[in-house]
């Protein structure tokens, strides 16, 4: 296992991007690009659990830590991804404290949680390092809960109070949609929702995370207190570079 997340929890910034294509070569390229971590996306991405395995394998040889965004809070799906060797899990659409507790317990072995115990899995070196993995997983794995509904904002203080939550991560497009202010990130309702999340995170010692639409927004959200900051996806990187090159060639013609 790569180094854990204690520096992030202590207030250092970690930057990352999403992986949406499910293609291991793209994962390897992005993993070597300079990001601290990447998020393999099972919620909106094109890959399946089989592609998660191959992406985790290639990312092992890069400096980037590997988080997986699951498509639901179902504990069995979380256990399977963790056994494959993910360094953290991002849970979408966490709107209540009960859902937050279910996410945390899915991340942890008994007596702290409900994660099933299997020794011969990739995460533990196929059994060779199981005891160490089991004993350190509580702090070595990152639990990220996405705050992206109006209901989540109403319950954000109770969500933040749940022991074991590491990151409150704002999903801007889903949250702005839920608030009726789609992509209006300066709208007072959206700003108020962010402020409520920031306040809850600070009172409870949680890290703040967000997805940026543009790297130019980094300073704004850093000063707001965000430390787990994502921008871009392998799909957008490929699309933007392809379009820029094609446009440059058309102009040359």
Short description:
With 253 residues, the chain is an alpha/beta fold. Helix content is 46%, strand content 17%. The chain has one domain (6-252): Phosphoenolpyruvate-binding domains (TIM Barrel).
Describe this structure in words.
- This protein is α/β, with parallel strands linked by helices.
- The chain has a single domain (6-252), classed as TIM Barrel, CATH 3.20.20.
- Helix content is 46%, strand content 17%.
- The protein contains twelve helices and eight strands.
- It has helices at residues 6-9, 24-31, 49-59, 75-84, 97-107, 130-140, 150-154, 156-161, 172-178, 188-204, 218-224, 234-252, and strands spanning 14-19, 37-41, 65-69, 88-91, 142-147, 167-170, 207-212, 226-233.
- An eight-stranded parallel barrel has the order 1-2-3-4-5-6-7-8, surrounded by seven helices.
- Helix 11 (218-224) links the parallel strand 7 and strand 8.
- Helix 2 packs parallel to helix 3 (49-59) and helix 4 packs parallel to helix 5.
- The longest helix is centred in the last third of the chain and has 19 residues, at 234-252.
- The model has no long low-confidence stretch (mean pLDDT 96).
Gyration radius over CA = 18 Å
How far do the termini sit from each other? Answer: 51 Å
Strand order of the largest sheet: 1-2-3-4-5-6-7-8
Count of individual domains: 1
Name of the CATH architecture:
Alpha-Beta Barrel
Q: Write the CATH homologous superfamily.
A: Phosphoenolpyruvate-binding domains
| Uncertain residue segments | none
Number of helices: 12
What's the layout of helices and strands?
Blueprint: H1 6-9, E1 14-19, H2 24-31, E2 37-41, H3 49-59, E3 65-69, H4 75-84, E4 88-91, H5 97-107, H6 130-140, E5 142-147, H7 150-154, H8 156-161, E6 167-170, H9 172-178, H10 188-204, E7 207-212, H11 218-224, E8 226-233, H12 234-252
Parallel strand pairs: 1-2, 1-8, 2-3, 3-4, 4-5, 5-6, 6-7, 7-8
């Amino acid at each position: 296992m790569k180094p854990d997340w204690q520096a992030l929890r202590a207030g250092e910034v970690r930057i990352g991007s999403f992986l949406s294509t499910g293609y291991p070569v793209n994962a390897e390229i992005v993993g070597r690009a300079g990001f601290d971590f990447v998020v393999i996306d099972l919620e909106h991405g094109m890959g399946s659990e089989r592609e998660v395995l191959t992406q985790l394998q290639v990312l092992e040889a890069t400096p980037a830590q590997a988080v997986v965004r699951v498509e639901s809070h179902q504990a069995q799906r979380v256990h399977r991804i963790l056994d494959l060797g993910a360094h953290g899990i991002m849970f979408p659409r966490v709107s209540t404290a009960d859902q937050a507790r279910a996410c945390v317990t899915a991340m942890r072995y008994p007596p702290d949680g409900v994660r099933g115990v299997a020794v011969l899995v990739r995460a533990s070196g196929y059994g060779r390092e199981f005891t160490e993995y089991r004993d350190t997983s509580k702090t070595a794995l990152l639990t990220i809960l996405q705050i992206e509904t109006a209901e989540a904002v109403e319950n954000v203080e109770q969500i933040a109070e749940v022991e074991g939550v590491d990151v409150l991560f704002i999903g801007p497009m889903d949250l702005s949609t839920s608030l009726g202010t789609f992509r209006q990130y300066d709208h007072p309702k959206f700003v108020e929702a962010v402020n409520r999340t920031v306040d809850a995170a600070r009172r409870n010692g949680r890290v703040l995370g967000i997805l940026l639409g543009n790297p130019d927004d980094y300073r704004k959200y850093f000063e707001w207190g965000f430390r787990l900051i994502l921008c871009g996806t392998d799909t957008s990187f490929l699309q933007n570079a392809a379009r820029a090159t094609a446009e440059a060639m058309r102009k040359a013609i």
